[in-house]
């Protein structure tokens, strides 16, 4: 109802005043109105409940303000810290990615260096030493048989060890970063987790809480309910006053109160009617005043049930609004609890953070040391490859040198042969002349004058010698004979290198 029961009573009173001599209300009707009015006063419990709701709503408003302030402060701080953690994680990830990129580059360099070395070794392995260089009974041997491969394997083992240590460092770093990610994801989940309130809704609730508006409605309803209850009390007082000014009213009320139907809410009238048994003891009213009072009572009595129903409607509305308030506070409380959980996780992550940063630092330092060691081993690997290539080149040079020496020997032999032929001709001519001289003088010259007169012409010979006394007996006249194809192949490889 939009107007109070009192206002309606006043309207009814005005209307009754304009009527002429309304009929008196029977005593039975008056008693019925009194008992109904007394029952309606039990609606005071709805007003008490309304007062409880308003009081609780005010407390909820205070609680919501505290929760919103605390949650907002914590969430802002957590968001700021989470942003810093995200930057730290991105920086650590950059370190890891840079390390992985560097590691892959080193592996590619290692593979290339090892491939080049293996290719050079395969060349040595496939290059068989010419049999002319070796003893006749020896089995065929390659150039690789004359070098120690153990040095290469030792170096490769050292490289494998360095790579394994680097992978172990990466695995340890991976584990640390995975723990970092798990902590960070747990923090994000805790920040966004809320049973019924999303982040955007929570932010809206900080700037516009529905509770003040709801509280205003509740207070208005409570005031209207209080006014309605006051009207019911006034109506009850009017009924009591009418009974008091009606002969036999007291007895009729007591009788009716003691014989109430079973399906009707029992009503106690003890203390209501007082102890006076005579209307004469009451303040006297004239007939006109009594008629006016009965007219108002009759009109208001017809609306008591509506007023009680209206009180119930008001209370139902208030209960519904209060449920919305409690739901809102519950959501705020849940969000606050989840924020506290997020803050707890943030504290744990902050405690773990130095360890994550130390892991990144250790990984960087260890990788730099490992990379430096690998680079030194790479240099040794490359130096060994260059040594093997020079070894192969020197073998081709040996073939060309032997060929050159053989050509020099052939030139010397040709020159010796020509010289020996000329010496023989001279010796033969000398022999003829000696014999002719001997024939001419043998009859005249004593034989003991010079014993060499009859000696025949001496034979001459060239003897090969070696300046290296240590090797003179072994290698004199032992320059190997190489096929022309071998020499040409060695010459082509030598030209290609240059």
From TrEMBL:
GO terms for molecular function: molecular adaptor activity; protein kinase activator activity. It is found in: Cytoplasm; Preautophagosomal structure membrane. InterPro entries: Atg17, ATG17-like_dom. It comes from the Eukaryota. Keywords: Autophagy, Cytoplasm, Membrane. Transmembrane segments: none annotated. Residues 259-287 are annotated as: Disordered. It is a peripheral membrane protein. One of its GO terms (biological process) is piecemeal microautophagy of the nucleus. GO terms for cellular component: Atg1/ULK1 kinase complex; phagophore assembly site membrane. It holds the Pfam family ATG17_like. Residues 40-444 form the Autophagy protein ATG17-like domain. Belongs to the ATG17 family. Autophagy-specific protein that functions in response to autophagy-inducing signals as a scaffold to recruit other ATG proteins to organize preautophagosomal structure (PAS) formation. Modulates the timing and magnitude of the autophagy response, such as the size of the sequestering vesicles. Plays particularly a role in pexophagy and nucleophagy. This is Autophagy-related protein 17. It comes from Calycina marina.
